[in-house]
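Q: Predict the bound structure with zinc ion.
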Amino acid sequence: MKKLTKGTFLALLIFNFIACQETPKQAEEIHQKTESEFEYVVDRFADLQILRYKVAGFEKLDLQKKKLAYYLYRAALCGRDIIYDQNYKHNIRIRKTIEAIYNSFRGVRTGSDWDNFEVYAKRVWFSNGIHHHYATTKMVPDFSETYLAELIKNSDRNSLPLKGVDGKNGLIELLTTVIFDPTVDSKRVNLESNVDLIETSANNFYQGLTQSEAQVYYQGLKKDGDKEPPMYGLNSKLVKENGQITEHVYRVGGLYSGAIEKIVYWLNKAVDVAENDIQKQAIQLLIKFYNTGDLRDFDEYCKVWVKDTNSVLDVVNGFIEVYGDPLGYKGAFESVVSMKDMEASERMSALAKEAKWFEDNSPIMDAHKKEDVKGISYKVITVIVEGGDAAPSTPIGINLPNSNWIRKDYGSKSVSLGNIVEAYNAASSGGTLDEFYLTEEERTRVKEYSKLAGKIHTALHEVIGHGSGQLEPGVVTPSETLKNFRSPLEEARADLVSLYFITDPKLVELGLIPSIDVGKAEFDIYIKNGLQLQLRRLENGAKIEQAHMRNRHMVASWVFEKGKADNVIEKITENGKTYFVIRDYKKLRDLFGQLLREVQRIKSQGDFEAGKNLIENYGIIVDQVMLKEVKERYKSLNAAPYSGFVQPKLIAIMEGKEITNVTLEYANSFVEQMLEYGEEYSFLGY
Ligand code: ZN
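A: Predicted complex:
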């Protein structure tokens, strides 16, 4: 279901899947920091950093669209409590306690205990709960149980979420257990085999029943021959009480009603300013679904939503992804409000129009060229706000809806979150530039062009790369011929199309790049990433498992080896540090072309052995000395393994009861934003 369909337009969510399923962690290191005027990083703590993203073009929207954005923004934030409660039943209470301490603690707010409390608080906000957002294990504070009690006792009792603070069943006793006891609710999502996944997972999707009882329940709902089954269980908590299993449905009047009513309130306002009838109908159907809780209403909504491809604004708002449930039924609340990235869309369509030229001028064998080639439609959006499970940690690609039959019969939307990717790239430590680039020439060029190079590389990869080439007659699909090597080979093919053309004067002619130096910068970035930077994510002694990493390592290692005789890429050691410096860009382009021809041949002929050899010889085994060196050098850069975002703030300017303008401000403090959200968007009891 999470496969990427290179289909239609705009926005619903998938987690960490982009066109070529690139996760944020992978995107971040590819391109270097270039801009100084906009500060991307606002906070850094534990294994995290907090970034901001730019919303270019918001002020150019007309008033109606600004209003629409504003209402959808409010609707997005109103669901915040839901994700906390879905993640763990005590999360809202814990967050309330943290907020109360922040707002009213009368003791000393300096020193290591307080600092450790602050770090813990920020980690809870980041993860929407007490379990690590990625590992899903319980986070252990660096302060003591005694200090927690001291914080609580010296904070305003009226702000605390339980009136009874001391003694049996008081707040202190409860929080001490759930926060500090490693045996209590230690993992949010447990995926180990041979254990009861419900019993061993701390999420709040099931209560009082076993894994097999839940599975039997949902199997029982399926109807034979139903070609359009709803996603059973998506919007409910499954509870067994007095021997009876019932679903507590998320809807107005049901579970989470307090938050859902607010969401519906803002969605109703959005209906009045919708851009067109299809969008209006989609929002109305979403409201209907929130009122009835009937999943068939959700499907009706999805069918219309996928048709809404002409609107400038788009929204994902609902119970969407099921990663938080080890059984894969329960949808986490999330929302993403976005607008079309006009500039990127133009770039994509400019390339798509020239698809035939690229195919004709490709170095692949004539027999492998498509006669009738079309660029693949691939859309980029600009995020305006994210909420629920999509924040602060965010996907960088969206591919929805998740329902298989809707995807097949009605289509889906697949997009890249352009400004999020841009922020990741811009924030990824300018440090790597100084650390891994030896010459001033490289550094200057990469500084100037990395951002544009990244955009063009993605566009070429997606629009031209994946769409080019054809199989020889009688050859079956790559998943059958190339089997487990299909994925890294396909990504390599798309990358190589991009790398081959990105220094071509044709791109200058099309007005996409000012000079081929943009392409040279991409060469620098790609080679260093493939041979060095990406290795930092591996453990010492490890091989490469992930498909994109295999592809990049294969491509970079292959051209490095084949170019050795001509010194195309020189390996230099200085002060114990290794550098790869490209000495001949023209010859390197030629090598990319040769490899493209071979990878295309492998795909077109279904040559499993050759494909396997390429990946096994160049893509999997890592020079362990280099791996160790890279990890050491990265350590000195103090780069955070995970990033998340503060959201922009939309402000409605009122004249009487009328909104006359909506402005957008960038937040500059994560703590302030979290406290503000706690103040304004707390709608559920605890
Ligand atoms: Zn791809």
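A: The longest helix spans residues 440-465.
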